[in-house]
Amino acid sequence: MKVPYVEADLCTGCETCVSLCPEVFTMQGDKAFVSSPDKCGTCDVQEAMDTCPVEAIKWAS
Ligand code: SF4
């Protein structure tokens, strides 16, 4: 299973990914992180990746 992660150094905290995939992404302080990688597939993670302004969302495998 492909699992996304957020490269915290790149994340600007714009919350776009949280808006697009609230099942997968959660804000922690001013950074987003992947809180539920197993939920991937219930929303459009690829769209979040493509929409992230700094390309901080990547596939771990
Ligand atoms: S879309 Fe990208 S920059 Fe914006 S909160 Fe998500 S990971 Fe961070």
From TrEMBL:
Residue stretches making up the 4Fe-4S ferredoxin-type domain: 2-30
Tree of life domain: Bacteria
UniProt keyword list: 4Fe-4S, Electron transport, Iron, Iron-sulfur, Metal-binding, Transport
Keyword Iron in record: yes
Classification via PROSITE patterns: 4FE4S_FER_1, 4FE4S_FER_2
Cofactor(s) of this protein: [4Fe-4S] cluster
UniProt-listed Gene3D superfamilies: 3.30.70.20
Chain's role: Ferredoxins are iron-sulfur proteins that transfer electrons in a wide variety of metabolic reactions.
Listed name of the protein: Ferredoxin
Natural source organism: Candidatus Magnetominusculus xianensis
Lineage, top ranks: Bacteria, Pseudomonadati, Nitrospirota, Nitrospiria, Nitrospirales
